Request: fold
Amino acid sequence: MIQPRSPTILPINNPANHNKNKKNTSKKTSTHQHKNMNKLIVSIVACFIATLNVCAQQPAGTFSITPKVGVTVSNFSGDMPAEVDFFAPLKSWPDPQISLSEEMLFISGNAYFTESKKKVGFTVGAEAQYQFTKVFGLSFGAFFTQEGVTYKTKGYSNYQKEEVTWDIHDDLSVNLNCITVPVLANVYVWKGLALKAGLQPEFAVGKDTKCDMTFNYDSQTRTLIKDFGPHINTFSLSLPVGISYEYKHFVADFRYCWGLTDVHDKDHKWLGNKKRWNTSSGYNRVMTFTLGYKF
Reply:
């Protein structure tokens, strides 16, 4: 006799329960990620606070000295062309220099160049600063700075009168070795970050020109044998503005200097002629980037 069996009831997954379990798992994962994110934010804030403490500028009422070294990129603005002249006697080349006496008959020639480009140099010196408040300090410095300009003359060739051939083989550079004395107000807009502006007297203690050129005359070839130097004022005044950042005792500084005074020496007499090129003007434009260590 066959006995009836009780029906077997198989468990059926309830969609509602499934979604509930999925939500619980997702919620646990989200909570874990949220905790990790909070830890990351706390760590970043802690590092940032520590960095602020490291980069803090000097306290108010203190004095510091910062030796610096760096590079300069300079040029002249305005209408200040370069004039290159040559002189040669009618019969033979002088040795070792060309005489400019009135008794000697000579031929001459010249060329004018107006297209200039930037010249790279270096600077080295130190600045002293007194910190009046947490946000304001006054600095005074002295630097040896290379400035000047380069004119595009390479490849110039000309045939002058009396069968003189004149060739220029590189760019003409005006080299100025200056003593610069920046006086700056420093305003700290953030920990270690300062904006600065002031005045900068400049003294050109060395002035010369450099150019590789040759002349061919009367079957003889000579290179440049006399340099009369650039007609540049010894004193000039600039307006420097810049930004600096201090990390521990290291200081990175960028400045741009606008020349306020004309660097062209209009009173210079050229072969007794005071009016030669006295209408042209030029102003310094110098970018400076330095690294220093503050004591």
Notes: The first strand starts at residue 62 and ends at 77. The domain at 59-293 is CATH 2.40.160.20 (Porin). The chain is about 15% helix and 50% strand.
